[in-house]
Design goal:
By secondary structure, this protein is an alpha/beta fold. The protein contains nine helices and 24 strands. GO terms for molecular function: flavin adenine dinucleotide binding; indole-3-pyruvate monooxygenase activity.
Length: 415
């Protein structure tokens, strides 16, 4: 599916390379349909939805493969945290033989099969370096590696997790042990017998902590804030699926009370293990802040037994470990930062109204966050995972199709 960089592939259409590029040394390319930036799940979903409406597109990917974050920036143990039926991309189900929670390798295989099924052929190693709208021309300019693409529509599909987030922690630069972000972590085998501090206790932090423990590491998990831990399943039913069902009939606050009650029955009182719950419920917190509750898959049992130790109140890193606010010092051989990712859209999108400069998310909240002005769209910024991605991809394709059918079908593209 890889395209030659000197022959950009515009699906189901043709391109025209002008002789007078606007940027010296680059080729100016007219794209009749949208330019999609990113060939991860969001970009593939956008492309497939456009395909079904027979709209040509060009998809640019800075990496060398589909879903480069999934392939090169995730740990081996990773599984989808939600059942597969909530993670399917539009018009293409998971294979029936896949388990309820597909593995990383199975999800990558699904994405590759998805691209093959819809004949999606991204142009790889083409990073969008600057994207801006020209009001005089009425088109978007997408500057990439050696090319400048001119188009009517731009779909930002780089997602919420474009770049690893590395917080500033006092003394971390002077720590002599090994330090890495979870994007560089693969498995815990190399940490056997080591004292490892995991910084961050979201789903990734919990899963990495369990993987380290299973591989013989002495694991401490730094918990800074309050958080909700829910069982992944309740009586064999996905907690997420059960929540979605209950929300059809009951208000969020009531469903939250039910989830916390059942979680206490199954997991016990998490505060006794050093993890306090927020004052508002897990679903209400997710809706208001985007903070996802942890879906437990076995890590909390290790925390409850003391095999994975909870630590709080880190003041700073020292040469050989960590100093706590109460003056205690503990040595560590390694620190793994499970501190998440950040959107990088505002670093290359030269548009000030659609995305918030502070966090890289659309200013307009879900469910209306997918559409900007002048033909600008985004997919994968809903804080609702792959389900939100699929919803937005279909909305974007439908909106562009209406314009395409009424405004551009009459245009003739020269060969």
């Amino acid at each position: 599916m890889r395209q030659k960089l000197n022959e950009p592939a515009i699906n189901s259409s043709k391109s025209k390379i002008f002789q007078q590029p606007m940027i010296p040394g680059s080729k100016l390319v007219w794209v009749p349909g949208p330019v999609i930036i990113g060939a991860g799940p969001s970009g593939l979903a956008a492309a497939a939805c456009l395909k079904t409406k027979e709209i040509p597109f060009l998809i640019l990917e800075k990496g060398s493969c589909l879903a480069s974050l999934w392939q090169f920036g995730t740990y081996d143990r990773l599984q989808l945290h939600l059942p597969k039926k909530f993670c399917e991309l539009p018009y293409f189900p998971f294979p029936p033989h896949f388990p309820a929670y597909p593995t990383k390798q199975q999800f990558i295989a699904y994405l590759e099969a998805y691209a093959k099924h819809f004949a999606i052929k991204p142009v790889f190693r083409q990073e969008a370096r600057a994207v801006q709208y020209d009001p005089d021309m009425g088109f978007w300019q997408v500057q990439a590696c050696g090319y400048e693409f001119i188009c009517r529509w731009v779909i930002v599909a780089t997602g919420e997790n474009a770049d690893p987030f590395l917080p500033e922690i006092e003394g971390l630069g002077g720590f002599r042990g090994r330090t890495l972000h979870t994007s560089s972590y693969r498995d815990g085998g190399e940490f056997k017998g080591k004292k490892v501090l995991v910084v961050g206790c979201g789903n990734s932090g919990m899963e990495v902590s369990l993987d380290l423990f299973d591989n013989g590491a002495d694991v401490s998990l730094f918990v800074r804030d309050k958080l909700h831990i829910l069982p992944r399943e309740i009586l064999g039913i996905s907690t997420f699926a059960l929540s979605m069902l209950l929300l059809k009939w009951f208000p969020v606050k009531l469903v939250d009370k039910f989830l916390i009650f059942v979680s206490r029955l199954i997991l016990g009182d998490t505060s006794r293990s050093g993890i306090k719950r927020p004052d508002i419920g897990p679903l209400e917190l997710k809706n208001s802040t985007g903070k996802t509750p942890v879906l437990d898959f076995g890590a909390f049992a290790r925390i409850k037994s003391g095999q994975i130790k909870i630590v709080r109140g880190i003041r700073r890193f020292t040469t050989n470990g960590v100093e706590f606010v109460d003056g205690r010092v503990k040595e560590f051989d390694a620190a793994i930062l499970a501190t998440g990712y950040r959107s990088n859209v505002t670093s290359w999108l030269k548009e000030e109204n659609f995305f918030n400069e502070k966090d890289g998310y659309p200013r307009t909240p879900f469910p209306n966050s997918w559409k900007g002005n002048n033909g600008l769209y985004c997919i994968g910024f809903t804080k609702r995972g792959l389900l939100g991605t699929s919803m937005d991809a279909q909305k974007v394709a439908e909106d562009i199709a209406r314009q395409w059918n009424s405004e551009t079908r009459h245009l003739k593209v020269e060969s």
